[in-house]
Design goal:
single chain, 0% strand, elongated
Length: 132
Amino acid sequence: MKRFRSGMFCLAVIMLLSPAFTTLSRAESQDDDLKNRIRLLEIQIQQLKALKEQQKQVDEKEQQCLKAVGNSKFCKCVSEALTKDVSFEQYVHFLVTPKEGLKYDTMPPESRQAVDTSIAAHDKCVDKGWFK
């Protein structure tokens, strides 16, 4: 009989503590969910900061182009078409310097890509007819 009572007592204790463990488990799950949401928000904030910086660079290139060229549609096209690694000054240098003068053949592939992309951006924006 003692065994039965101690067994019943253990069963009662387990039944009473079971909701407490479930509550703790839910609280931990909610805490993990909250931490995950915070982490995702921090990632989004970093992405927004990077996007803002990229837009700032595009705007800066556009302003420099406007000072030199004066055609807002062309400048907007060029500033958006240039890669983030190419400044407006570099763009102009790539356009006015022959490839031999740039030593294009000895450039690393990334630099050649920057030159090619800059020339393609120029051609694309001129072909739109803003100077005719």
